[in-house]
Specification:
The protein has 458 residues and is of the alpha+beta class. The protein contains 14 helices and 15 strands. Mean pLDDT is 86; it is low at 77-108.
Length: 458
């Protein structure tokens, strides 16, 4: 009798296994695409680019690559990584390099981008209706956050340039619909810009806002029920005039640069005027106060604008700026919301920081770098990234509950999508049998049951 020695058991490795599927949890994303009608909408939108006698549907290819990116795939070489991951999602082969590398005829045209965006907007409205109380417009308001992203480039790509952070790459401008504290967010605009693009050009912010509004249901494309939030890059005369133009009348909450005039006005505020800032739970925020400015500082700005300043004790070790006063860190923002306490308006503006979470999720979902050379190709890649992020936002909104709705892509990939299963075909039906010992098997099966119960697209 021989005893085994060592820390690990000795096993034999043999081939010939059948019916084993990795990344089986990705069936949740596939079912989301089916129930939302995204597959049919994208296929119909890109039908003009399908050549006669073509084997592959351009819309199907686009969605396959988006699914692969949602699972963590990256474009490498001839899209081997993305294609390999997508092969685990659905049966059949995939030749995605003809689209992903931009060689598909016509996919650099703005007309194709417009078709993809129209399809996304159509599906988004249906998903929000299916989500019911979990939709981002449940409270009667939609919040859109606009923020810039730095994407590094490690080779000479078209429009790659030196950025304001002394790096080299591109400076896209993204917009996300905020799902609030109980959810994540979904992209509604991705404007590809050169690396040396400025942080606050009004034309770029207007274009990003216009693209975002086109992605929303029609009732939110104008009016005070749509709130646009930006950092101080959006605090320009042209952008605020565009938001409040006659017939548009959008709400806004944008950061403002503290000029010398604003700084002098802050120094004149009496101590009794300052109001304690609040936390999301309603409790007072320690060491932070807010006050509203009036008078000459509003001259030349849109009618109805309110200028609110916030002072807070800096964190230990933080270095004060020359615009700070009395040892307090000063920040300022503008809004046209009238019927709300300034402490709640300041909290609402501070919650714009959730856009940083959306950007982090985008970096983990294909935005780590722009893999192609031409700008038109990389703009298509941004649309693929947004499609992947849409699926990663819609699936939790439709199928997950509780804290699982706030899981970011990396956590969903680890807990849900990476689950292995046995593929069994019986009675002309296919079943995925997940391992019982997987800690999140119940989450996967419950989520799939909720998706399966949704009505099919008309």
């Amino acid at each position: 009798m021989r005893k085994s020695s060592g820390s690990y058991p000795r096993v034999r490795v043999e081939g010939g296994g059948r019916g084993v599927v990795s990344q089986s949890g990705a069936v949740l994303l596939v079912e989301t695409a089916r129930k939302s009608g995204l597959d049919a909408a994208i296929s119909t939108a890109l039908a003009p680019w399908r050549k006669a006698r073509a084997v592959h549907d351009p819309g199907k290819i686009l969605l396959d690559v988006a699914l692969a990116v949602a699972l963590g795939g990256e474009l490498s070489g001839r899209c081997r990584d993305a294609a390999g991951r997508a092969d685990r999602v659905r049966a059949g082969g995939l030749r995605s390099d003809c689209l992903a590398t931009g060689r598909h005829p016509g996919f650099g045209w703005p007309r194709a981008l417009a078709a993809i965006r129209r399809a996304r907007a159509e599906v988004r409205e249906r998903v929000w209706k299916l989500a019911d109380e979990a939709a981002p417009d449940t409270g009667g308001e939609v919040v859109v956050d606009i923020d810039g992203v730095l994407v590094l480039a490690h080779s000479e790509k078209q429009d790659a340039a030196k950025t304001w952070k002394k790096t080299f790459g591109h400076h896209p401008l993204f917009a996300f619909v905020d799902h609030g504290p109980g959810g994540s967010g979904e992209p509604v605009a991705g404007l590809l810009r050169p690396g040396n693009a400025g942080s606050n050009p009004a034309a770029d912010h207007i274009e990003a806002a216009r693209t975002s509004l086109a992605q929303l249901p029609k009732k939110y494309r104008r009016g005070r029920r749509t709130l646009i939030r930006t950092d101080s890059a959006g605090g320009t005369h042209d952008f605020l005039n565009w938001l409040t133009a006659r017939g548009r009348w959008l709400s806004y909450s944008v950061g403002m640069t503290i000029t010398d005039q604003v700084h002098q006005a802050v120094l004149k505020i009496l101590g009794a005027v300052w109001t304690p800032a609040v936390e999301p739970g309603g409790e007072v925020r320690d060491g932070a106060w807010v006050a509203e400015l009036a008078g000459d500082v509003l001259t030349g700005w849109p009618k109805g604008m309110r200028l609110i300043v916030r002072k807070e004790r800096p964190h230990p070790g933080a270095q004060l700026r020359f615009t700070d006063a009395d040892g307090m860190r000063l920040t300022c923002f503008a809004t046209n919301t009238t019927r709300a306490p300034i402490a709640h308006l300041e909290l609402r503006y501070r919650q714009r920081a959730r856009a940083e979470d959306r950007i982090r999720a985008a970096r983990d979902t294909g935005l780590r770098n722009l893999p192609l050379h031409q700008t038109a190709q990389n703009q298509i890649w941004l649309e693929i990234v947004q499609l992947a992020l849409d699926l990663l936002a819609w699936m939790p909104m439709l199928a997950l509950t509780g804290t699982a709705r706030r899981w970011e892509p990396k956590r969903m990939r680890l807990r849900l999508f990476s689950a292995a299963a046995q593929l069994v075909t019986t009675g002309r039906r296919s079943y995925l049998r997940l391992a019982r010992h997987w800690p999140w098997t119940d989450v996967i099966t419950s989520a799939f049951a909720r998706l399966h119960a949704l009505p099919n697209p008309g």
